Amino acid sequence: MTAEEYNRTVDEHADGVYRFIVHNIKDKDEAKDVVQDAFEKFWKNHENVQFEKAKSYLFTAAYHTMIDRIRRSKKTEPMDDADYNNHSHSKQYSDLKEILRDAVNKLPEIQRSVVLLRDYEGYSYEEIGEITGLNESQVKVYIYRARVALKEYIGSMSNVV
Amino acid sequence: MTINKNNYEAFFLDYHEKNLSPEQVADLLLFLEQHPQLQKEFDAFAAIFLSNDDAIVFEEKENLKKIIINAENFNEFAVANLEGDLTPQEIKQYAKFITDYPIYKKEESLFAKTKLHADLSLKFPDKQKLKKGKARIISLNMFYIAAAACVLLMLGMFFSKQQTNSFAPQTAEKAIENKVEDASEKSTASKSPGQYPVSNIQSASSNKPILNSQFPNTNSLNHQLSNSLNPKSEIRNLKSDIPLIEPKTAFIPEESFQLRLKSLQTFPVYLLDENYAISEPIQITPATAFENFKKDAVKKLEKSKQDSDENWFPENAFNPSKKTRLIDLFASAIDKISGNKVRIEPEYNEKGEMVSYDFTAGAFNFKKDLSK
């Protein structure tokens, strides 16, 4: 990939990678750092990456950088299902978008990542598997669990809105 | 019908196919006892029947079955439908299920709401910073070369500053004062009043700087400095040893200067009163302006004579610890580049001459004896 193509990748994918990370770690400054790290890794290796594979390479680099940072800062969550039974109804929601955002934040990190990649970027199970290092069946299972958890959270909150 | 030699084969077959009544089986067994030569033929009938092997089963039987949507597996169908994983036939089946059981309509609508939509207004703020020019990677060697260049530059600046500080006053204000003082001293010493310092102007009469003839022997000065750099040496009375003359200052006779001033045109100037307020501009000739400046200079000169010696003596004329600081600076620069702790320790003899130095960088150490 040429430097020009690299710069095009910045224009086309920096926002997407940033959105993906910022929704995962909820800290804009840290998300910026992760994106910059990912692009640095990408730049170091840009001559070996095809332009068509750039997006996938970037998301993979960003995802792993994010996981490393989360682990370093000991913010890891257990990879099991989200516990929506203890959620509080004290919070006031104005619309579904807000409920959904809250629900996504409550998902375990791996479920959140796969569902964000699926919905935001439209990645296939196989591509999500490549990015996250899971196999296709695991991706399916995590997406299924995430959807059911989100549905239940929205269902329980729909009367509150 | 009773068994006999003409029909026993039929009985044998019926026996193995379990078609005989208990009485007929008893008759058959009695017949075999009476005719033991037929026993072998009777046993041979058993071998021609194939028994069914129940142990062999079709293991993927379940996969052949069509999954019927029900309350237990509804979520799986709903998620698969949302993800676009259902076949056209399954989509029909799913739609029919929801039509048949309207209670699942709400569930389906809740699942539909779990689809996330990216907030496109959220953008990466420093995209331009991520962009690169032409691919140009600075090698590690280049880094070291650059670092070495920085060190040399720093050393150059240090020496330059040291030299300037040894001779020149610290501030511009001090410089002006010293020029006035120098002028006063020179005019007194040479008994030729009317000479004024003008920076970087050559003598109008001789057309060459008179710097060298009026300055002390520079070799002698250097000798004094190099000795004084030794921190162990006695600190001299610098005030009396080192003359305070700005090296780039030259002097021209006042007559020539006045002639040049008169040839210049008048110009507007803004004068400051006692309170530093700007008054209206006045037209003034260069000669008048010069006279005004001269008066100010004389006033400053008189004032400066009242000050103590410490006040007019430049603080930075000489600092005996500078060589030590230079060594420290050099050591710290190597320290920064190499990442190792670097120390250089000079040793001096009784005369104050450096006789050796000890160089330590991390685990590496050597001592250089300069006396040999």
Number of helices of chain B: 17
CATH architectural designation of the largest domain in chain A: Orthogonal Bundle
The share of residues in helices of chain B is: 40-55%
In percent terms, what proportion of residues of chain B is strand?
Answer: 5-15%
Structural class of chain B: mainly alpha
Which consecutive residue ranges of chain B, at least 5 long each, have pLDDT under 50? 166-173, 186-249, 308-321
User: Biggest sheet of chain B, strands in spatial order?
Assistant: 5-6-7
Annotated CATH topology of the largest domain in chain A: Arc Repressor Mutant, subunit A
Distance between the termini of chain A: 50 Å
Return the CATH class of the largest domain in chain A.
Answer: Mainly Alpha
- Helix-strand topology string of chain A: HHHHHHH
Q: What would you call the quaternary organization?
A: heterodimer
The average pLDDT of chain A is 83
Question: How helical, in percent, are the residues of chain A?
Answer: over 70%
Number of domain modules of chain B = 4
Whole-number tally of structural domains of chain A? 2
* Low-confidence segments of chain A: none
* H/E topology pattern of chain B: HHHHHHHHHHEHHHEHEEHHHEEE
Number of strands of chain B: 7
Largest sheet of chain A: none
Instruction: Say which CATH homologous superfamily of the largest domain in chain A is assigned.
Output: Winged helix-like DNA-binding domain superfamily/Winged helix DNA-binding domain
